[in-house]
Write a structure and sequence with these properties.
One of its GO terms (molecular function) is 3-hydroxybutyrate dehydrogenase activity. Its EC number is 1.1.1.30. InterPro entries: 3-OHbutyrate_DH, NAD(P)-bd_dom_sf, Sc_DH/Rdtase_CS, SDR, SDR_fam. With about 260 residues, the chain is an alpha/beta fold. The protein is built from eight helices and seven strands; from the N terminus they run βαβαβαβαβαβαααβ. About 45% of the residues are buried.
């Protein structure tokens, strides 16, 4: 379905981003990975699906490095047809104790990075009259949770930005949408579970059950593969007129 298209997925060396990259690659899309840490393993995993794979180590908190990454995509892949804004970090504390530098870094990586990447790929998408911008927001793009002021603000910002850019491209072949997952068992979430287990002196299994039970009626994690499947749907002709949505994939979290 996506043969000849190129997808840039930020924050894609593990977790949700890698899951989305793999599902897009299964549909024939060439992939540009981005992220810190080991990238050789994830790159090989995607290459095994028979598509062209690139990598950029761009720091998503730095606009100049984002611009260099897009230049690389234009030069080596002929542009970005599908942009998945996924890179994100988290920090938890009450607002009066929230470190200023943590606020700044979360807003930079979770929100501003998506703005910079999107503004840089839209001209190429307009020239082709086809494109997909898919931003991974969160259930926290729709509702709040205590002690996550920067994350919730950034994810609400992603949902708002998605609506605006969808309106600005509404008469074109470009669609702009957001995915709002609930709990996904990523390294980020596993750390929260382990921290809870240690802090409360309970088993990891019990900590997992408590974490899900607080928010997610299904008591199930959403998987990276499911989010990848949703991204594939957004890229399909069936979604040509799906524009500006914040699509909850959250086990009923935001239905409450």
């Amino acid at each position: 379905m996506l043969n000849g298209k190129t997808a840039l997925v930020t924050g894609s060396t593990s977790g949700i981003g890698l899951g989305i990259a793999l599902e897009l690659a299964k549909q024939g899309a060439n992939i540009i990975l981005n992220g810190f840490g080991d990238h050789a393993g994830p790159k090989a995993e995607v290459e095994a699906l028979g598509v062209k794979v690139g990598y950029s180590g761009a720091d998503m908190s730095k606009p100049a490095e984002i611009a260099t990454m897009i230049d690389y995509a234009n030069t080596e892949f002929g542009g970005v047809d599908i942009l998945v804004n996924n890179a994100g970090i988290q920090y938890v504390a009450p607002i009066e104790e929230f470190p200023i530098e943590k606020w700044d870094s979360i807003i930079a990586i979770n929100l501003s990075a998506a703005f910079h990447a999107t503004r840089l790929v839209i001209p190429g998408m307009r020239a082709k009259n086809w494109g997909r911008v898919i931003s991974v927001a969160s259930a926290h793009g729709l509702v709040g949770s205590a002690q996550k002021v920067a994350y919730v603000a950034a994810k609400h910002g992603i949902v708002g930005m998605t609506k605006v850019v969808a309106l600005e491209t509404a008469t074109t072949g470009i669609t702009v949408n957001a995915i709002c997952p609930g709990w996904v068992l990523t390294p980020l979430v596993q750390k929260q579970i382990d921290d809870r287990s240690a802090k409360e002196g309970i088993s990891v299994a019990q900590a997992t059950k408590e974490l899900l039970g607080e928010k997610e009626p299904s008591l199930q994690f959403t998987t990276p593969e499911q989010l990848g499947g949703l991204a594939v749907f957004f890229c399909s002709p069936a979604a040509d007129n799906v524009r500006g949505v914040a699509w909850a994939n959250d086990g009923g979290w935001t239905a409450q």
